[in-house]
């Protein structure tokens, strides 16, 4: 009798899926900055049942990193994989939202940051962990680290918190901070909001020399064939 993969216990099938499809590091679906991450597509093509089992585990147990991506990149990715697959995603990394204004009575996020959070809220109905990468320069001209008024800082961070917690399934908000000097009031307010803070050494200059980096705009977004409802081979060149 020939072996039948679907005849294996579900626990064993899931273990096989994990060994083949789950990465220890984050999946970065933006091939502009790093070589594309490769996965074998064979498992997804076996039959409909295995495709469904493998796909749901792939999206649920991997973490997707959209840092350095534009709003169009994130929207295109989630549209390409479809709402069902986006609904499996449990963990996402994004850049810390940028501020358009930090006036006394007018604290506003930039439009592209709002679009990213709204798209995640709309499509990722089971998202559990949202991690935000933050550096000294992430606030642009409206840098809360330069604000002398703690009320501005509190208001700005509460606005980000409100936007994030609009994702009803969210259980954890993480902030990964790359910087050399502490800003005690900002860090304390983040903790007061229930965020988990991690400090890491900034290796940006080693990976991406300043003379080789150009600013990214929405016009640089990756394009997809809108006629493909879900094409796992063309998905950001992940080749899964």
For the record, give the distance between the C-alpha atoms at the N and C termini, rounded to a whole number.
30 Å
How much helical structure, as a percent, in the residues? 25-40%
The total count of helices amounts to: 7
**Low-pLDDT residue spans:** 207-240
Radius of gyration: 20 Å
- Along the chain, the helix and strand elements come as HHEHEEEHEHEHEH
Q: Which term fits the overall shape?
A: elongated
**Mean pLDDT metric:** 79
Strand content: 15-25%
- Order of the strands making up the biggest sheet: 1-2-5-6-7
Q: Please tally the β strands and state the result.
A: 7
Summarize the main sheet. 5 strands, parallel
Which secondary-structure class do the elements indicate? alpha/beta
Protein name: F-box domain-containing protein
Organism: Cucurbitaria berberidis CBS 394.84
What does this structure look like?
With 240 residues, the chain is an alpha/beta fold. It has a domain at 65-209. The chain is 35% helix and 15% strand. It is built from seven helices and seven strands; from the N terminus they run H-H-E-H-E-E-E-H-E-H-E-H-E-H. The strands form two sheets. The chain has a five-stranded parallel β-sheet. A two-stranded antiparallel ribbon has the order 3-4. This is F-box domain-containing protein.
């Amino acid at each position: 009798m020939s072996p039948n993969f679907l005849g294996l216990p579900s626990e064993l099938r899931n273990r096989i899926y994990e060994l083949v499809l789950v990465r220890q590091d984050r999946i970065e679906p933006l091939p502009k900055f790093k070589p594309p991450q490769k996965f074998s597509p064979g498992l997804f093509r076996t039959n409909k049942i295995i495709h469904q089992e493998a796909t749901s585990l792939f999206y649920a147990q991997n973490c997707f990193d959209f840092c350095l991506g534009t709003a169009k990149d994130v929207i295109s990715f989630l549209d390409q994989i479809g709402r069902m697959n986006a609904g499996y995603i449990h963990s996402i990394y994004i850049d810390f939202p940028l501020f358009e204004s930090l006036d006394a009575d007018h604290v506003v996020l930039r439009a592209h940051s709002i679009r990213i959070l709204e798209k995640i809220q709309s499509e990722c109905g089971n998202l559990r962990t949202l991690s935000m990468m933050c550096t000294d320069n992430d606030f642009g001209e409206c840098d809360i680290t330069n604000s002398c008024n703690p009320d501005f800082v509190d208001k700005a961070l509460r606005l980000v918190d409100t936007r994030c917690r609009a994702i009803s399934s969210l259980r954890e908000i993480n902030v990964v901070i790359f910087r050399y000097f502490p800003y005690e009031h900002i860090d304390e307010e983040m903790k007061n909001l229930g965020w988990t803070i991690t400090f890491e050494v900034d290796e940006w200059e080693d990976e991406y020399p300043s003379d080789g980096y150009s600013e990214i705009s929405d016009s640089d977004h990756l394009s997809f064939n809108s006629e493909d409802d879900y094409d796992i081979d063309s998905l950001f060149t992940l080749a899964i």
